[in-house]
Design goal:
The structure is a homodimer.
Chain A lengths: L9 H19 L4 E2 L1 H8 L3 H9 L5 E2 L3 E3 H11 L6 E6 L3 H8 L2 H4 L2 E8 L8 E2 L2 E5 L3 H8 L3 E4 L3 H14 L3 E4 L13 E3 L2 H14 L4 E8 L11
Parallel strand pairs in A: 4-5, 4-8, 5-7, 8-9, 9-10
Antiparallel strand pairs in A: 1-3, 2-3, 6-7
The first copy, chain A, binds a DNA duplex through helix 1, helix 3 and strand 2.
Chain lengths: 232, 232
DNA sequence: CTCTGTGAAGTTGTTCACAGCC
DNA sequence: GGCTGTGAACAACTTCACAGAG
């Protein structure tokens, strides 16, 4: 029972879902084995990177052959905690919120949107794509009842911080924020931000520079609030 | 006329739009000067990081005081190439594509969506939020005519690669891809990928680990295709 | 005394290069 | 001969710590 699996770098964590995506794709095309080189091409890195990344989870390659796709998918899913389905809610059923409610691809991947919330009376009580829209006041009660893994914020910027606090208070375990502000959650709740204007602006820079190709991958950590430095 | 401004790290580039966002926010609240510490809190990093990042663009802080917000906004906008408005098209007017077409926040920030494209005859010829939807066959002609800075891909995964190639071929200068596949563009065209399932899966990992807070920021580079290493 | 700008130190992440197994 | 796994070298990025300006 060896428990001390080496610490997996954040940068690696961010790539694992991409490997998984590619592997599932390969598998559905009938392939059963894949080399690090092939996987690397797929996500725009090199084979050494792939081998190093995968080596953090264990040794499941076969020298001279490659990786058995089915087994790798299993290992990655396990490692990423995808074994059980996750429950997701969407707060803010505007254009983007509606688009997310309407997309069925998440469910296939184990992320089920179980409720929507909004303040607009014309939306409350309706259902979209089989998902009920509730009023904000019900958030706490519903979250307590069904247990929610991920809360998506698709409200206007000014409401985002307030919503984030309500989500945490209600017991939502992590947050995906689409509002164009940084939200501050006092707790140790994982938060990821997706700001499309930021994406545009980064592209704008490379455009104006006449720069080379870039592939975006998530990254950047922070602990709690203050930015306390760690041990030294 | 000193031209050899130091190379700005990718990690810094990815943070600049966040500083800009925060500065605009501060400014609209009537503030005129800001310290590195305050800016750092805003995006979840520390003051040394902020000062180092800004120092790559020049010296515009005032010792003992801080940064003049208006000036910093100007410098950042300039640096990111936001001085002239950018033209954007959306290929794939499904749920997500429609949401993007309907959102007016981009225009305010200088990114104007000038056309949509789809294969669905029921959408072609319509207009959404003042943007005309064209058939895919018109892509080349329209892009040639108006000049397009950013092409957004919101098609199903199977079509994304094909669309990417058409965009490049038509002369679109950069790509923002929402389809859940890695696209391969032969040219030196900047590409950024946003895959919401990937975001979910990264959150899933931190959830299952009971891990600390993370803030996502884009990152990861690649040159052209092969992954050729650089000079040694 | 406050807050910036920046070399230097420290940390994290990537690539090399080769031993080991198929 | 082909491909993985991995220490060691290298490169990128972050944080420290302090000189210097207001």
């Amino acid at each position: 029972m060896k428990m001390v699996r080496k610490k997996v770098p954040k940068a690696t964590i961010n790539r694992l879902p991409l490997y998984l995506r590619g592997l599932v794709n390969f598998y559905s095309k009938g392939e059963r084995v894949v080399s690090s080189t092939r996987l690397a091409e797929l996500i725009g890195t090199n084979s050494a990177q792939v081998r190093k990344d995968l080596s953090f989870l264990g040794e499941f390659g076969i020298r001279g052959i490659g990786y058995e796709i089915e087994k790798l998918i299993e290992e990655l899913s396990q490692f990423l905690g995808l074994a059980q389905a996750k429950k997701v809610i969407v707060v803010g059923v505007g254009r983007l919120g509606s688009a997310l409610l309407g997309y069925n691809g998440f469910k296939e991947r184990g992320f089920e949107i179980v409720a929507g919330f909004d303040v607009d009376p014309s939306k409350i009580g309706k259902e979209m794509n089989g998902v009920n829209i509730y009023k904000m006041d019900s958030l706490r009660k519903i979250v307590k009842k069904i247990g929610v893994d991920i809360g998506i914020i698709t409200t206007p910027a000014q409401k985002a911080q307030e919503v984030a606090e309500k989500l945490v208070e209600a017991g939502v375990k992590s947050i995906l924020n689409f509002a164009p502000v940084s939200i501050e959650v006092s707790d140790k709740i994982p938060v990821r931000n997706v700001d499309l204007s930021v994406e545009f602006q980064i592209l704008s820079y490379y455009l104006s520079k006449g720069e080379k190709s870039i592939i975006k991958r998530g990254n950047e950590k922070r602990f709690g609030e203050g930015g306390k430095p760690s041990i030294k």
